[in-house]
Specification:
mainly alpha; about 70 residues
Length: about 70
């Protein structure tokens, strides 16, 4: 749902959807990564970095998260 909303440029709603998903499964690396992408688009770089870091803590070699973390920096 979050990805569909993000594709529609409804970033705030996408972020809320990712947060709801993470409330159910907080250790889902892909959702953390997608949340980071939404936050990055909203120019909330510190929060995006935190989401990428959590995803990387779960999957240390998550290449996309590493790349987008670098972009957020």
């Amino acid at each position: 749902r979050g990805n569909a909303l993000k594709a529609l440029s409804r970033i705030d709603e996408a972020l809320a959807s990712y947060d709801r998903a993470l409330a159910i499964k907080p250790d889902h690396a892909e959702t953390l990564y997608n949340r980071g992408n939404a936050l990055n688009e909203l120019r909330r770089f510190d929060a995006a970095l935190a989401s990428y870091d959590l995803a990387l803590a779960l999957v240390p070699h998550y290449a996309d998260a590493l790349v987008n973390r670098g972009n957020a920096l």
